[in-house]
Specification:
Rossmann fold, Helicase, Ruva Protein, domain 3, alpha/beta
Length: 454
Amino acid sequence: MPAKKIMIVDNEEGLCRMMSAVLMDEGHGTRTFTDPLEAVELFRAGIWDLVISDIKMPGIDGLEVLKRIKAIEPEIPVIMITAFATVEMSIQALRRGAYDMLTKPFEPDELLFRVRNALNHNQLANENQKLREELAGKFNFDNIIGASTILQQLLDKVEKVAVRDTSALITGESGTGKELIAQAIHYNSERKEKPFIAINCGAIPSSVLESELFGHKKGAFTGADADKEGLLKAADGGTLFLDEVGNLPISVQMTMLRFLQEQEFHRVGDTKPTKVDVRLISATNSDLEQEVKDGTFREDLFYRLNVINLHLPPLRQRKADISLLAAHFIGEQNKKFKTAIAGFSTEAQHASTEYPWPGNIRQLKNVIEACMTIETENQISLATLTQFIEIDASTIGNEDYTNALARFEIDYLRQLLTSVDGNIDEAAKKSNMNMATIYRKLKKYGLRKGEILN
């Protein structure tokens, strides 16, 4: 464990020296105080990693030292020492924020054991806090990429929804970023310090989905060898995100409706209700209103989930955001693989903007990753991009550009095949295209090897 700075407060000078020597042998830095008032006056947040204080001291006692230190730095661990430990005193110290109690007399090994536990706890708490701050920053509304009017209007609505503790239904095509919006709601709400739990209702067999969500009692069914806590219980105080909520079986829909009405549910096989405080955010790429009409989704549950509707537009309706998203993903890949791709070439940029992206943001990210894997220049070229998306007149919508693209690809294919005497395998290796792409483009332009080579 790295060296830590430890404050020791005890009116017994000999005990201070002993504890200091033991802890310094472990590599820690210590400072001892026999006057508790002096210790409190010199205590500053961010300097100390741990405080060890006796309880019974003249001037002010250890409980008052604990109170004043916690007022300055609430998260610092404090170990209290006493020769007169009672249950009442221990409870009082723990209620005031003490991490541990150590009873005199004690051996050096016991002191070290308690100190290690406290420091490990503090380190873990610091790491968790840092992670929470990083997550809050990552899901800040300013970090959701896009400048299009349609996205900004949505984010204005999302920002208002975040601070209102109500259910929300996020709709939109696959790959539009529904979970990202759910996380933004959570990390900008009063629940941000509590868990965000996500489950894809379409990825879990319906036979076990109820147990996953609500948990079960031991012996509730074959294979239930122990009590299990469900995801709703795990999300207590926080947010549960139900992705593809349209896949919930009717039986689970009934239990979920009861939870939304009462904020309680029964674990599978349990007769006692479990009460939790959880915000529910759900998402779907299907038409739930039609499923209600078809009788596959409960109407009362739909209205409970759809208190606020947030619709994510597909990428083809956010053309102004494509360049920003592409630059972000290229930057991520450059950082991850230590590359220096500057971006799309002018032709590739035009093509990417006009392409409809049926898989939306997820597809754009995957295509950029694939392009950067095989690109040999400092920009993603049109030739590289068209190995992963099909460009034609209907997607470009610009006749001059379409003709230029077609001329480029035809000339490129002619020169490529001529340079390798028509060997498709060699052409694929030389161009960093796969053979299927070359055959598809030859067919698209009506090119035949025999005519090219003659």
